[in-house]
Amino acid sequence: MTLETLWFIIIGVLWTGYFVLEGFDFGVGMSLPLLGKGKDKEDTDKRRRVLLNTIGPFWDGNEVWLLTAGGATFAAFPAWYGTMFSGFYLALLLILVALIVRNMGFEYRHKRDSDAWRRGWDLCIIIGSVLPPLLLGVALTNIVHGVPITRDVHNEYIFTGNLFTLLNPISLLGGFVFVGLSLTHGFHFIALKTTDEIRARSRALATRVGLVTAVLAVVLLLWVGIEHGKVSSWITTAIAAVALLAAIWFNLKGKEGLAFIGSTVTWAMAVATYFLALYPNVMPSSTDSKWDLTVSEAASSHLTLQIMTGAAVVFTPIAIAYTAWNYWVFRRRISVDHIPPAVDPLKGVHSGEQVELR
């Protein structure tokens, strides 16, 4: 196996890690209006705080996988990175803005005891949880489907389409599947981390959303397979479909841990299907196959890939060990009973009292 192929696989693994981990916290963010409605204002706020506390120790660590995947693509395949960003610039900018606004919601929501303040940040969290998987689904499906790229007089790859070129039926289907998988994965995680009514409602919604997502996902993966399928990608497609159906069945039986593992395998096999269908290209051209950008053409120098491989061997086990430790420490279930009354950190400022600065 060449270093170019090895790094293509590593980038696929990094995207898998990102969607498995960030997928469920996107789902938790989307679930606020579905699972966060209580009997009164105080109950609603406590339910939403329970939901957000399930991902409190994890969401920022999960985003490291996106940064690592992007950084590895830039270093290992600069031509792929440059062509992708020139074509998907607006979509990637929207993803970045959505992630920033969502993260601000996590950090600022509890800074004021005000209904309007919380509603505003809740809306930011919900929108910031829907847009990234939707746009990443559209972008990655376009990459597998093929985008209009050619070469200029300097032999550089250039994107010749526009935003509307990217909004084709298969890519939009990809976006909806990524949102549905994130929401189903998130419901499984919430059921695994909570008790009482939130847990029961999460399981019920996981079944309904999971069944709709399963139908859409099968159509999407069959579409990808018909266009670019290989024996290996058909095998991963079949495993993805079986894993999602198994997750729904385990959820119905109340085996929440197995349901979460099922949706985890579904994400892993769906991403594997995309990368297997893509190889040996990193961006097939819909204009003419002679403009396909291949793994070898997009790769950095051999020395660069050797240095990156050495760094990955040292730091990857450390990152995995820290992530596993973090999930083990915060493994307990939480409920509304664990949530203290809301406080306003600026109450003393408004009343003229002296506030201790820390």
TrEMBL record:
It comes from the Bacteria. One of its GO terms (cellular component) is plasma membrane. It is a multi-pass membrane protein. Pfam families: Cyt_bd_oxida_II (PF02322). Keywords: Cell membrane, Electron transport, Heme, Iron, Membrane, Metal-binding, Transmembrane, Transmembrane helix, Transport. GO terms for biological process: aerobic electron transport chain. It is found in: Cell membrane. One of its GO terms (molecular function) is electron transfer activity. The chain crosses the membrane at residues 6-29, 79-101, 121-143, 163-184, 205-226, 232-250, 257-279, 299-325. Belongs to the cytochrome ubiquinol oxidase subunit 2 family. This is Cytochrome bd-I ubiquinol oxidase subunit 2 apoprotein. It comes from Calidifontibacter indicus.
